[in-house]
Amino acid sequence: GEAGAVEGAERGSVREQDPLLAALEAEAEAVAARVGDALADAEAAIGSAVRVDAEEQRRRDEQAARELAASAASAAGDEAASEAAAAAELLDLVQILPPAVREVLLASPELDELVEVVLDLGRPALARFPTSELECGDEPVSERDLEYAVDAAGEFGSDNRAGLDRTLHRISCIRSRSGKVVGLTCRVGRAINGCRALAKDLVEGGGSLLLMGRPGVGKTTAVREIARFLADECLKRVVIVDTSNEIGGDGDVPHPGVGRARRLQVPRPELQHEVMIEAVQNHMPQVIVIDEIGTEAEALAARTIAQRGVQLVATAHGNVLDNILKNPALSDLVGGIGAVTLSDDEAKRRGVQKTILERQGPPTFECAVEMEAARRWRVHRSVGEAVDSVLLGRNPPIEVREMVGDECITVRTFDAPTGAELGNPDRMSLPLQAGNEAYGYQNGGNGAGPNGGYGSGANYGSDSYADAPFAGIRIYLYALDASRFSDVITFLELSQEAMVVDDLHQADCVLALRSAIKGSKGEVLKAAGQRMGIPVFAIKQDTVPAMTRTLRAVLGLPGDDGDRGAVETAAAVDGVAKGKATKPRTRAERKAAAVFEAKQMEDEALEEARYMVERIVQPLGESVDLAPREAYLIEAQATMIAEEYALETEVRGGRLRILPINISVDA
């Protein structure tokens, strides 16, 4: 206490002695007070701002919720309106039918799924649905019924087609020799939305798109939706060349399903190519949409349009890309095919014949789609690369897309085979260290395997064989159509005995197309098979009969003698390093190898017998002795000669003698 008193007395004496110091201290205290007030005001302002931001955020959230609700209500309203319009259009088609047929259809609970109605003179009317058919009464269709429908449908064009104004329905007639209508096919047309997601990335960048598929799969529906997407959402100038009014509907006003796209009608189908050129010359389009390119003139017109920088979206006659390649009138759409003669050295280096097929030029379309179903597509992103792969004997890279709800899901993507040229072992490699994931396979899916192999899991949609042990034979296919082979397995009900795999490591044996591994072209595959102890067998033809016979032989099942020569063992190919056969490593492989060897011996024996009959016995009328064979082979030769040539035979010293005596004459 005494020290504090002393210190206060000292400060007081200092203030008295120095008034300036006292003034400074007072000013400092005032500044501190003002700073405290400012801090308090700042805290209050921050609190107020936080409350304002929270309120603003709440208002924004409420506004977003209201907009979302309005959008959902609008979408629901649009969907309801679309459904109502579709139902009204369907009733328009039903109204042109004879009264008896109309009554049956209106009473059907499946009316909304109606595909077409067939009216044939003298037969009951038939209504077709996606999974069923319905006879519309017991009474046959009369001439009066047909006249009623024809009068309601209106005038038929030169292509024997008519339509209903501002609808997508198509009425096609069948005429007699005299030109009289004796049948009608009334096909329901619907504007179905949903394809946009499958094609969006393929067309919005300006690339041309070609769609292929079987009749009725939905090609026209797809191009209609793509035209609407490009016109309404991408804001492009779209012109539709509508030959049969299937895209834009009948009548002078296009159907709402095409959006803001413009439509040029074609007076006669044979003038379609001229209207295509007219569209470019007169209407300055950015996109031209064409349905059913089917003639050489139309293909040339499409190439001319593409060379002018106009985007093309079209359909063509053909199920898959290979159909377009083999069609002389349409092959120009994918670049055209020409024969090229190689020098001896080049042919030897490639391991091919001197004359081969090559693509002549750039394709008209950048992308191509094979439509397996309306909502399931197989996409070739690069048509040029796909065509080159096919001509080189390899399976092209593909992408399988499928619609699930309103979204497009890429099911599987299969990479292009490595190596630019088939038969160049230095530039080819098999996936000996890579699993299925490296190539985008899922659950053993179908598709082009690496390096020309084409794999298809027999258990698509289930767990892979690694998770579920498989007791049968696993087969790796090389340059063969795996989907076709899988269909053979399913048809023969052998899914428990055999399956196709995509990974060479998992295979028990390899089946390859003989022409794809002949000579130096199969060195990589042969070396891989020898190194891994996997037998490699060759099949002569990529056909269902040959595949059926091969599968039966692999499994040791009895088969028929049809399609002789379609299958050939690859004993000369199997593990060919120095002519040594690879030793099978499993019981299944040993069984497969033994069956193929026995089949080869039987084929050789039968071929020898046929040769001797056709070259010596029949033309010269002389008997001939065949080479010594085992008893079962001699019996097979005798049976074949009796069934196919009706000639007598006898066994002498372990060999078969063919006699120039006809069985029927002897009898």
Characterise this structure.
- This protein has 667 residues and is of the alpha/beta class.
- Helices cover 40% and strands 20% of the residues.
- It is built from 18 helices and 26 strands.
- It has a 9-stranded mixed beta sheet, sandwiched between helices. Strands 3-2-1-6-5-4 form a 6-stranded antiparallel beta sheet, covered by helices on one side. Strands 21-20-22-23 form a 4-stranded parallel beta sheet, sandwiched between helices.
- Helix 1 crosses helix 2, helix 5 crosses helix 6 (219-233) and helix 12 (482-491) packs across helix 15 (544-555).
- It is extended, with a radius of gyration of 38 Å.
- The termini are far apart.
Question: How is this fold's topology laid out?
Answer:
Elements: H1 2-17, H2 19-95, H3 99-106, E1 116-120, E2 124-128, E3 133-140, H4 143-153, E4 161-162, E5 170-175, E6 181-187, H5 196-203, E7 209-213, H6 219-233, E8 238-242, E9 262-265, H7 272-283, E10 287-293, H8 296-307, E11 311-316, H9 321-325, E12 337-341, H10 344-350, E13 355-359, E14 367-373, E15 376-380, H11 383-391, E16 398-404, E17 407-414, E18 447-448, E19 454-455, E20 473-478, H12 482-491, E21 498-501, E22 509-513, H13 514-517, H14 523-532, E23 536-539, H15 544-555, H16 587-620, E24 624-625, H17 631-645, E25 647-652, E26 655-662, H18 663-666
Parallel strand pairs: 7-11, 7-14, 8-9, 8-10, 10-11, 20-21, 20-22, 22-23
Antiparallel strand pairs: 1-2, 1-6, 2-3, 4-5, 5-6, 12-13, 14-15, 15-16, 16-17, 18-19, 24-26, 25-26
Helix pairs in contact: 1-2, 5-6, 7-8, 12-15, 16-17
